[in-house]
Amino acid sequence: MPQALFLLLVMSCAALLGEGVSGSGDSASTAPAMLPVPPPNCPSNCGKVDIPYPFGIGASECFRAPTFELTCDETTNPPGLYSGDLLVANISMETAEITVYYRGLTSTCNDPDNRTAPPSNVGVRLRSGTAFLISTAGNTFTAVGCGAEARINGNYGTYRTGCMTYCARASESAGDGTPCRGNGCCEASLTADLKEFSVKWVDDFKSPAFNPCQYAFVAKNGWYSFNKSDLTGNMTFSERYKQGTVPIVFDWAIRDGTCTPPSDGSDEAKPVVPSACISKHSSCANARNGPGYFCICDEGYAGNPYTKDGCTNINECDHLISPNSTFRKKSYPCHGGTCQDVEGGYNCKCSFGRTGDGKSDKGCEAIVSLAAIAAIGTISGISLLAVLLLFLHMDRQRRKLRDHFNRNGGQLLKSIKIEIFTKEKLDQITKNYSHIIGRGNFGKVYKGTTSDNVQVAVKRSIAINEDRRKDLFANEITIQSQVSHKNLVQLLGCCLESEVPMLVYEFIPRGSLYDVLHGKDGTGRTHPLPLGARLDIAIYSADGLAYMHSEASHKILHGDVKTGNILLDDEFVPKVSDFGTCRLMSIGKEHTNFVIGDSSYIDPVYMKTGLLTEKSDVYSFGIVLLELITGKMARYDKNNSLPLNYIKAFKDGTTKQMLDTDIASTDEDINCLEMVGRVAVKCLEVDVNDRPTMAQVMQELKMQKIQWLHSHDKIGDAEICTTSVSVYNSHLQNPEISVYKALLSSHPLSS
Asked: Which residues does the annotation say bind ATP (predicted)?
């Protein structure tokens, strides 16, 4: 809809600011007969704002011309300084700027029926002849909103600029405090010599529902910082900023004169000083915006150049500047010398033994001969100190390695047939531990290659119980090195020179059963694994664990049985890893309370009692069996528990629905998988006494494979009998075979 181009604000103040300076007769070459000098009783401030001449309040002698007249409202607390109707925030002598507040916030809003309400327009107009111009460098035009298009017209139609914003949703806008570059807010710079402007909205504006109001304003640089909350709510932006009051900067100058360059054209000579710059040690500079000039104090002086003797010497040595001064504090270097203040500057006298210019970047430099002597002495001292420190460091490292070696039982391990690697050797083998092949609860595993091109896996533990160092650790390594089973990862050696001992194992190339079943980090299966292979993996893994529990020279508990700790070689033969250390059982002991395992596999009984037994490994192996027959992880589909869900399905008779469809292709396969599932369920019994041993689990799994082979006509009836007897007799030496006989005859596993 057609709208007025702009609504001029600042009425009475515009009239005041617009009054030209008449009759002053300022020029660069001709001074008036009577220079305007403020009387000493003129007020120097109003509230918290200083009033430097040529500005003033009260009598006409207190300000240079009507355009510089201000008023002080003492009815408020604190009193407010005004230029017309505009509240003055600051007057800068150094930059020749005045900052005021004006009703400069324009807005346009949609009503609840999505009809655009008439926008509020604002503007500023300064009359010709005024000392003020809208600052180009000090202000920015800003629009806030999503889909906003605001324009600014100026100088009576001869100047136009604007900017657009876009954001489909509030969440897509720029972040809080970020620059306004079109995403929620935008900015545009102003032209020079700007005497008036007005803000206008485009007629076809339609704001999104979440952004009912759009805003635009010309304000002092840095005043506005974007916030997402400015895009929501109805007029919250205006209310937050004092009902639309914003600061704006005007450039001011003595407009009826110029700063004339020196007649000889020299850059070092002072320009012809105009009449307004009445202080000694003052000069002038042409206005940065529009015609005219402003006065400045000479280098080495600070103060008010518009008053008599207003520019005073700066004490550079103390860096003292009047608290009421608007001049920026300057740094005056004096390196290696003593500062001496002089009129209009300072000297820097070099200290004894130094020469040069203390005010330069290099400062006062030491005399060469002294520098040479100091350098020789310093270099000699540093060299001796470096040699001593190197010797001490090497000796400390040797003692540290020797101490680690002894604390980790190195003297005891020298007598066994296991290779003891030095730390330096392992650094070379692992290429400084650059190739990580596994992470676990106890540390990291690195791949390495020995000088004989044998690939090894180096396990670097996170920590070790201090109480289990030396003799006990050495005994554990000794026994573990004697463990020899085709389904257990072989320990090849160790390194005792590190704070926590490192173990060297044979390298198993295909990775873990977890990786084969679920892919790296559970990202999906990478290798097809048929049912026969899964049965073999289950049988051989159980065989390795049964050996640890009953056939090794000392009972060894694993404590962290999971698919991630069952490694597969190139032929998919399983090897149980991550066992032995920290879980070795002494003779006659039935449990240990030192274990760190995967929470998805840990025995609930252990969680309650803190005691680890061989039946804890049986529980964890039951979950491994479920992973083999279902293809699911121990925790799957965000946080479903595989053992809990399978036991529920087992009780409901719906386990078939949970089986891995890749291997459940025939009725015989499904029957075999369900029988393996029954074994797993038995392993997961709450009462540890109802759980089978690992030897019993292995035997039952062997029987299930034999029956599965027979169901596929891969083995005859006579072979079944022969094979079953062979399986039975192969474990006659097992002291638990009587328990297993009873299990086969009466236990539900054999049903």
From this structure: 459
